[in-house]
Design a protein that fits this description.
Blueprint: E1 2-11, E2 14-25, E3 30-34, H1 39-42, H2 44-54, E4 63-69, H3 81-91, E5 102-104, E6 107-108, E7 114-115, H4 120-129, E8 134-138, H5 142-145, E9 152-156, H6 159-167
Parallel strand pairs: 3-4, 5-8, 8-9
Antiparallel strand pairs: 1-2, 2-4, 6-7
């Protein structure tokens, strides 16, 4: 079965949409990533395999082919781990959910946790330009991605959290921006107290 998940890359200062296509077919168990991936992307095979298993799900005992399109753009970094994992689970019919209107990005740790990635802001900006309104990003990067108006950003802590959300078992809460004088909700000690002003 074939599954498609949309992710994003950063080329220079601009975001570029990347289609993550996953095909699972009969054959000797293997996983191949094509589409001009760099070393970090090639290494995602082991991260994705371990993250799926350590999230309590079996990794497909079949031939897994992952295509990152368009092929003429070099794919760098670990941001494709999360969309690749979701694509594999969808293609293997281990989970069901509609990911077409969403962009997914994030690095996976071996235990299934979702780690920080670089470029969340230009990726979110490109998502809006392309008409996407939903983003699933590492929780650490949600404040940055949420700076773009018109998109709903879901902070993802783990692969299992996203699986539960897509399956409808436990929905993620969208990130909500909070504004304060020093960015953390507390008033800095040097802030002016208007009661001290006379005259």
């Amino acid at each position: 079965m074939l599954a498609k998940v949309t992710s994003c890359a950063v080329v220079g200062l601009e975001g570029v949409l990347i289609s993550v296509e996953v095909d699972i077919a009969r054959g000797l168990p293997s996983m191949t990533i094509v589409g001009l991936p760099d070393t970090a992307v090639q290494e995602s095979r082991e991260r994705v395999r371990a993250a799926i298993k350590n999230s309590g799900l079996p990794f497909p005992s079949a031939r897994v082919t992952v295509n990152l399109a368009p092929a003429d753009i070099r794919k760098a970094g670990p941001a494709y781990d999360l969309p690749i994992a979701i694509g594999i689970l969808l293609a293997n019919e281990q989970i069901f959910g509609d990911v077409e209107p969403a962009i997914i990005m994030g690095e996976l740790s071996l235990d299934g946790g979702v780690r920080h990635i670089s470029g969340a802001l230009p990726m979110a900006n490109q998502a809006k330009k392309e008409g996407f309104t939903t983003l699933f990003v590492p929780a650490e990067d949600a404040p940055q991605a949420a700076l773009i108006d018109g998109v709903t950003v879901y902070p993802v802590e783990s692969l299992l959290d996203l699986i539960d959300h897509l399956s409808g078992h436990k929905k993620l809460a969208p990130y909500e921006m909070t504004f304060s004088l020093n960015g953390n909700g507390a008033t800095p000690p040097y802030a002016t107290d208007l009661s001290e002003i006379k005259g």
